[in-house]
Write a structure and sequence with these properties.
The protein is an all-beta fold. It contains 1 helix and 12 strands, in the order ββαββββββββββ. The strands form 4 sheets. A 4-stranded antiparallel sheet has the order 9-8-11-12, with no helix packed on it. Strand 11 and strand 12 form a beta hairpin. The longest helix is centred in the first third of the chain and has 5 residues. It is globular and about 50 Å long. The termini are far apart.
Length: 180
């Protein structure tokens, strides 16, 4: 089985996977746009029949041919792509540190992201928050030795939004959140 993954180039999170019959090849993987089109839509159920669509644009994605990893299909955001010293994706997909429950606080003036342990070196963050017809794209980092950061954002109080949060080294989070 040959496995191709699509991943967020800023954080390394796997966001899509495609298995093809046959042996893995050393050929370059397809361009992400050839696999996902202009954007890869991630969906979050908001309740009452509503769904938020959070599009990751093809220009923010990369693809890699990797070793077979069946578990990636059950939990895409729990895996990442590591790059070698020459910038090429390594063939083994590492499982990212688990991060569930809590850690995300959506307020009218920002999204606060808190990871379970402070990173040794700065951790990059990419976050998407649904907002009606628009998607708010936030980027930043958690400084080394700190466990949280607030990314500025303007939202109406009380609304429910779809949220995608990718923090380098931690499993990605795709969920609904209510503005407190």
């Amino acid at each position: 089985m040959a496995l191709t993954v699509v991943y967020a180039s800023a954080t390394g999170h796997v966001v899509g996977a495609l298995a093809r019959p046959g042996p893995a090849t050393s050929a370059a993987p397809p361009d992400p746009a050839a696999l996902v089109g202009r954007a890869l839509p991630l969906r979050v159920a908001l309740g009452a029949g509503r769904t938020a669509v959070l599009p990751l644009h093809a220009g923010e994605l990369a693809s890699a041919s990797v070793d077979d990893e069946p578990a990636v299909f059950a939990d895409l955001l729990a895996f990442g792509v590591d790059l070698s010293a020459d910038g090429r994706p390594k063939p083994v997909l590492p499982r990212l540190a688990a991060w569930t429950g809590g850690g995300l606080a959506l307020a009218a003036d920002g999204l606060t992201v808190t990871v379970p342990l402070a990173p040794v070196r700065a951790a990059r963050i990419v976050a998407l928050v649904s907002g009606g017809q628009d998607t708010h794209v936030l980027a930043g980092e958690i400084p080394a030795g700190r466990d949280r950061v607030t990314l500025p954002l303007a939202l109406a109080e009380g609304g429910t939004h779809g949220v995608l949060v990718l923090v380098t080294g931690w499993a990605g989070r795709l969920e609904k959140a209510r503005v407190a």
